[in-house]
Amino acid sequence: MDVLRAETPLVDAVIKEMSVGTRIFLSGTIYTARDAAHERLVDLIAAHKPLPFDMEGSVIYYVGPSPAKPGHVIGAAGPTTSSRMDPYTPLLLDRGVKGMIGKGARSREVIEAMKKNCAVYFGATGGAAALLSKSIVEAEVIAFEELGTEAVRRLIIKDMPLIVINDCEGRDLYIEGQKEWASV
Amino acid sequence: MRVIDVNEIQSIVKELFIRACTDINDDIMDSFVKSREREESPVGRAVFDQLIQNAEIAQKESIPICQDTGFSVIFLEIGQEVAFAGGLLRNALEEGVREAYTEGYLRKSIVKNPLTSPENTKDNTPPIIHTDIVSGDRVKVTVLPKGGGSENMSRIKMMKPADGVEGLKNFVIETVKTAGANPCPPLLIGVGAGGTFDYVAFLAKKALLRHIGERNPDPKIAEYEVDWLKEVNKLGIGPAGLGGRITALDLFIELFPRHIASFPAAVNIQCHAARSKSYTI
């Protein structure tokens, strides 16, 4: 199993090294967005209005955290199911988003858009939310505060443990992994 | 006649939801440790390591195992000699949920109206309440904070009687296969069969209240549970869906008599957090 340390923003040269199944420890700035925020972002793009963060080179984490306890940066913060964001994703990839963190398989359209735009999809372990929250050193709501857990947050992360599910060549760890370990 | 003050039930509900969301059950942790040794896939073992570490952090710091602290499902077994006083039982249950989700720093994940309002209810109410009136004078409260991810991968099917046991087995395997990584494997699988369209789904959810290794008392059904678990684990989906031998930790079947024309079937998927806690007074 290959292991790679990487920092945002993600550039093409680094993304091309991130082949399917590589374990990644990611640091830097990422942005949270799930269902409601994606809908709003896409509406803002359609209306040619300014976006809450610069999409170019960005990494989006599909997460709705639980509330932070006093003295904590953030609550439990594991990934939500990515496929619900599939309808919005090709547009965001065209706008420069380079990485996505979530769980669960992506659609054919998203994987093709990733190939076209040289982007990568990382899996964070679903349900390891307390552990994942320890990689988050700063968290700030930057848009759609009224959405509560679904607001857009800027997170500073350090060594968040991820794995490459889809690389920029369209390979899929879910498909390859299941094939390798299925016993019919 | 035994009188129980609903405030006592309220406190129990509050405590149970907080504990369910932060303290993993012993049988689950035990299963993680044993499964980690049995799992042959290296990435699968690494996932188990993360789940074990995650559960330890959550319990130690009293933070949620998973950020999706779920829909507040409550099962009540009420002894018929019990009378409730001190207010409406329903209100006490709601208040217990409200307090748990506020004081326990749990996520409020409920939206007011599926059709007309995306507005959050802000306190994770209303709970979904199942009541069973039983003999005696005790009250058993069970909470099951049920996450959206696993619920979304659950399925109901009105099969034909001719579909038979094989049909049910195939429906279960197909449901798990289609779900893939989405519901956070390794899973617990609750299977319901019989009853009516609505009751079979309840049976499948009730099945999830069992502990790992707790077999259906009917030996024939217990045999199906063991066999179908093996079949599911042949799929190779593995921990976090990354490929491995252990896709599910256990499988439970709950049955009820069926109509001569129907064979309702339901598969309620549960994630590895498998959160549920009970208390009896």
Structure overview:
The complex is a heterodimer of chains A (184) and B (281). Chain A is α/β, with parallel strands linked by helices. Chain A has a single domain (3-179), classed as Fe-S hydro-lyase, tartrate dehydratase beta-type, catalytic domain (fumarase, Alpha-Beta Barrel), CATH 3.20.130. Chain A has helices spanning 12-15, 35-46, 89-94, 108-117, 129-133, 173-181, and strands at residues 3-7, 23-32, 59-61, 99-102, 120-123, 136-143, 152-166. In chain A, strands 2-3-4-5-7 form a 5-stranded mixed beta barrel. In chain A, strand 1 (3-7), helix 1 and strand 2 form a beta-alpha-beta unit. The two termini of chain A are 25 Å apart. Chain B has a 4-stranded mixed beta sheet with strand order 6-2-7-12. Chain B has a 4-stranded mixed beta sheet with strand order 8-11-9-10. A two-stranded parallel ribbon of chain B has the order 1-3. Chain B is globular and about 55 Å long.
What's this, in brief?
The complex is a heterodimer of chains A (184) and B (281). With 184 residues, chain A is of the alpha/beta class. Chain A has helices at residues 12-15, 35-46, 89-94, 108-117, 129-133, 173-181; strands spanning 3-7, 23-32, 59-61, 99-102, 120-123, 136-143, 152-166.
Q: How confident overall, as mean pLDDT of chain A? A: 97
Determine Rg of chain A (CA atoms, Å).
16 Å
What is the end-to-end distance of chain B? 14 Å
Q: Using the alpha-carbon principal axes, give the shape of chain B.
A: globular
Strand order within the widest sheet of chain B?
Answer: 6-2-7-12
Tally of helical runs of chain A:
6
Q: Order of helices and strands of chain A, N to C?
A: EHEHEHEHEHEEH
At CATH level 2, the architecture of chain A is: Alpha-Beta Barrel
Q: Would you tell me the overall average pLDDT of chain B? A: 98
The name of the CATH superfamily of chain A reads: Fe-S hydro-lyase, tartrate dehydratase beta-type, catalytic domain
- In the CATH hierarchy, the third-tier topology of chain A is known as fumarase
Beta-strand content of chain B: 25-35%
Instruction: Count interface residues per chain for the largest interface.
Output: A-B, 48 and 51 residues
Number of strands of chain B: 12
* Overall tally of domains of chain B: 2
Given the helix and strand composition of chain B, which structural class is it? alpha/beta
Approximate strand percentage of chain A: 25-35%
Give the class-level CATH name of chain A.
Alpha Beta
Helix content of chain B: 25-40%
Oligomeric state of the chains in view: heterodimer
Structural class of chain A: alpha/beta
